[in-house]
Every structure is written in C-alpha cells, then in structure tokens.
Amino acid sequence: MAESRDYMTLPEEKGTVNISEEVLAAVVVGAVRDVEGVAGMMTPMGAVASNAKNARKSAKGVKIDMTGDALKVDIYLMVEYGHPIPEVAGNVQKTVFSSIEAMTGCPVEAVNVHVGGVSLA
After folding, report:
1. Are 79 and 116 in contact (CB under 8 A)?
2. Which pTM was predicted?
3. Cα distances (Å, whole numbers) of residue 112 to 17, 24, 52, 118
4. What are the DSSP E strand ranges found in the chain?
5. Domain 2-119: assigned CATH number
6. Residue ranges per domain, the chain?
7. Strands 71-80 and 108-119: what pairing?
8. Which of 35, 69, 99, 116 is surrounded by the fewest CB atoms within 10 Å?
C-alpha cells in the first residue's frame, strides 16, 4: 500500500482508491460516538497545530498518521462519570479498528486512546 500526504492509496485491480484523511477522521468520530461511556471528543492537551489542516483535525479529537503501511490513530476524548475508563477505552479501540477496516479497507496498526477528562454531566 502506498501513501501520500493527504490520502491513503489502496491499489485495486482496475486502478486505485484514494481515501482522504478527512474521511478517515469522520469514520473514527462516527465510530467513537457509538461507544457507551464516551462523553465527547477533545483536543490534545497543549497541542499546537502547525497549520490550519492540522488544527481542523485536532479540533475533532483525532490525529491520523499515514506514514507507514498501516494507519496509526490517536483519539482524544472525555469519559462519562461512572463508566470504567479502561473498559470505555478498550471498546473505543475495538470499534475504531473494525470500523476503519470495514468501511475503508485500510489496515490499522494502532489505535491510541487518550482520556483527557471525566464528564460529570
């Protein structure tokens, strides 16, 4: 699998399929919303975006690294009070892995979950 700066490229029998980082981030956000105990997405603590494109992705709480043969995803979220954090994080990892691979065909190397807070509301 080849990669480019803005797209994940998947070779197919009759050509290639290019999937943008924005599409991958949307798949991740949609998957995370389905996990019980997630209160919401958040930006990384102290993260400074180097350009507008990165600022847009960080605002969603998702960072995607497409430099290797498989995706590495970092997710920044808040957990609802009363839900076990390790359980919620594990469910997020499983859901994101399966959603990305099922919807895009892109292999996923790692899904790193960063819990930045607990929502009391």
Report:
1. no
2. 0.80
3. 26, 15, 23, 18
4. 2-3, 7-12, 15-20, 38-41, 62-65, 71-80, 108-119
5. 3.30.70.1350
6. 2-119
7. parallel
8. 69
